Amino acid sequence: MIIQIAAAAENNALGKDNKLVWHLPNDFKRFKEITSGHYIILGRKTFESFPKPLPNRTHVIITRNKNYKAEGCIIVNSLEEALNKVPKNQDTYIIGGAEIYKQSINITDKIELTRVHTTCEADAFFPEINLLEWKLIFEEHHSKDEKHNFNYTFQTFVKK
């Protein structure tokens, strides 16, 4: 199964200047729980936004740079090549960035989305979820608190 996982504002904003525009500890916790032990596919810029590789995950990094190296990671030059690196019986998580989400939306089976209830200026956006193609099967609302500056909702969509 190919699964996209993201946090996006109501205007589908993902981030600006290769950084998230919010800090939601519960979203990070959910992301870790869902993706731990799995292959994650991500773009080079998304990978470089992390302080170090994420523990307990196999990173498959897509880059146009033929000489790119990242210790302990699988480096590929296309989404197709990335998918071929994942064993066939494994769930695969697409974790960004915007271009990788866009390239993979038509082959994605499931979307794990944290909808952040704000709109913000951004330079990276999540693809629009067409509700004619996707069915919302799970929704859990959370109110802002001392650790979360925004209301947010965990959502799971599956392809119809």
Main beta sheet, described?
A: 8 strands, mixed
Provide the spatial order of strands within the biggest beta sheet: 6-5-4-7-1-8-11-10
Radius of gyration: 15 Å
What is the structural class? Answer: alpha/beta
CATH superfamily: Dihydrofolate Reductase, subunit A
Would you identify the regions where 5 or more consecutive residues have pLDDT less than 50? none
Helix percentage: 10-25%
User: Secondary-structure element order, as H and E?
Assistant: EEEHEHEEHEHEEEE
CATH class: Alpha Beta
Q: Give the second-level CATH assignment, the architecture.
A: 3-Layer(aba) Sandwich
Tally of individual helices: 4
Span of the ends, CA to CA: 14 Å
CATH topology: Dihydrofolate Reductase, subunit A
Describe this structure in words.
- With 160 residues, the protein is of the alpha/beta class.
- It has one domain: Dihydrofolate Reductase, subunit A (3-Layer(aba) Sandwich).
- Helices cover 18% and strands 35% of the residues.
- The strands form two sheets. Strands 6-5-4-7-1-8-11-10 form an eight-stranded mixed sheet, with helices on both faces. Strands 3-2-9 form a three-stranded antiparallel sheet, with no helix packed on it.
- The longest helix has 11 residues.
- It is globular.
Précis, in short:
This protein has 160 residues and is of the alpha/beta class. Helix content is 18%, strand content 35%.
Could you outline the blueprint of secondary structure elements for this entry?
Elements: E1 2-9, E2 13-16, E3 19-20, H1 25-35, E4 39-43, H2 44-48, E5 58-62, E6 74-76, H3 79-84, E7 92-94, H4 98-104, E8 110-116, E9 124-125, E10 134-142, E11 152-159
Parallel strand pairs: 1-7, 1-8, 4-5, 4-7, 5-6
Antiparallel strand pairs: 2-3, 2-9, 8-11, 10-11
